[in-house]
Each structure stands twice: as C-alpha cells, then as structure tokens.
Amino acid sequence: MNVLLIEDESRVSEFIDRGLRAEGHGVTQAANGQDGLELGCNADFDVIVVDLMLPDIHGYDICQRLRHNRVHTPVLILSALDRPDDRVRGLRFGADDYLTKPFDFEELLARLEALVRRAKNFPSEESKLQIGRLTFDRDLLEVCLNERRIELTAKELALLELLMSSPGKVFSRTRILNNVWGYSEDPLTNVVDVYIARLRKKFDCDRKQRLIETVRGRGYRMRVD
Ligand code: CA
C-alpha cells in the first residue's frame, strides 16, 4: 500500500517509514500540515496517517479539509492525545481510525491494512450513490434525476452527498453544519434549511413524494422506499 505520513516528529516518522518499507509498502512523508494537505489532495494514496499536533495546521483541520476537498482516502490519526473526547472529535472530523502514542508498530500496520482493505471492498458503491431515480456520481460530481442532469453548487452537492451517504438516517442540523460547512458549534443560522429548500426546488418539487424528508425536531433524511 501507498501511505502518506503527515508527522512533524522525525523520530516517529522515520520509525514508521522504516517499518512500512520493510513490509514492502511505499511511504511519502510530509513534516507539516500544509505539505501533507497538498499531497493528500493531489496525489493518490491508499491511506493517510496524520499527527494531530503539527506546527502549522491542526490534524483535525487536515481531516476536515481533505473531506471538503472530496478526498475519501481512509485517514488514521496518530496522536499523544488519548482522551475519549479527542478520539470522538477526530472521527467526527472525518478520520476513520485513531491510534494513540506510544503505539505498537504491529498494531499500526494491522489497522492501516484493515482500513485499506475496507476501502477497497466498496469502491463501486462509494463512487456512485443511488436512491430511487436519483443518482450521485462522486467521481464526476454529477447528480441526475431520471437520467436528467441537475446543476448544483458545491455546497448543495456536499449537502446532498452527506444525506445520500446514509439513506434513511436522520441528520441533525448541527451534524449537517459540521459536515458541510465545517462549523463545530451551532452558529444559530438557518442556512441548512435554506439549502434544503434550494435542493428541493431543483429536484424535489413533488410535495407528496419528497426524496428529502423533514423529520420534525430532529433534522433531515433521504427517504428510502
Ligand atoms: Ca507532532
């Protein structure tokens, strides 16, 4: 596998680099967040390992920006921060796994292999989302209803992608704000409702058969038949 390692502590990155290479894997190192983010967005890796405490960009921000840039490569956070809070935050910001330092190399390797295996098992399902007559092509960023293409803005696409990623699941406004707009707190805005209304106007006008359902007091979800 081809690993991107974003870690500023050379002692740690050299240790991981040596271990992975000895197992026949490729490693690209980035010693700061900016370089890591650029590599992660522009090159193709099987998995990304990111440290949280980097000199420039926080690891959480890297996860979030990768996901905002539609990079779906699995991410493992490697950090000395070991409170449950840190883990939860990391996973919420788009990471797929979290390992605390000091770590056992065999465990790191096993977790990376598991992430890569999981990602490879579902490539086709991940690149194309479909709910009834509505399809979302993640590679082409193309949304079609009844095979007719619908023009959406970047935020509309991100919102729809989130909803379509788990059909039937209710997404709260806070969750949507966090995922699509990157707010970590509720900024007391109705931007989510505004965007839902825009999506409905573009493809979901039939009030009786709405694809995006409002679940009162809880949020929104994609209808599943
Ligand atoms: Ca560090």
Structural description of this entry:
- This protein is of the alpha/beta class.
- The chain contains 9 helices and 11 strands.
- The strands form 3 sheets. Strands 2-1-3-4-5 form a 5-stranded parallel sheet, with helices on both faces. It has a 4-stranded antiparallel sheet with strand order 6-7-8-9.
- A hairpin with a 2-residue loop joins strand 6 and strand 7 (134-137).
- Helix 2 runs parallel beside helix 3 (59-68), helix 7 (154-165) packs across helix 8 (173-181) and helix 7 (154-165) packs across helix 9.
- The N and C termini lie far apart (39 Å).
- The mean pLDDT is 90.
- Calcium ion binds next to loops.
Q: How would you characterize the largest beta sheet?
A: 5 strands, parallel
Low-confidence stretches: none
Distance between termini? 39 Å
- Structural class of the helix and strand makeup? alpha/beta
Number of helices: 9
- Numbering strands along the chain, what is their spatial order in the largest sheet? 2-1-3-4-5
What structural keywords apply?
single chain; 225 residues; alpha/beta; 5-stranded parallel β-sheet; binds calcium ion
Task: Describe the structure concisely for a colleague.
With 225 residues, the chain is an alpha/beta fold. The protein has helices at residues 10-22, 33-42, 59-68, 84-92, 105-121, 123-127, 154-165, 173-181, 191-203, and strands at residues 2-6, 26-30, 47-51, 75-79, 97-100, 128-131, 134-137, 142-145, 148-150, 212-215, 219-222.
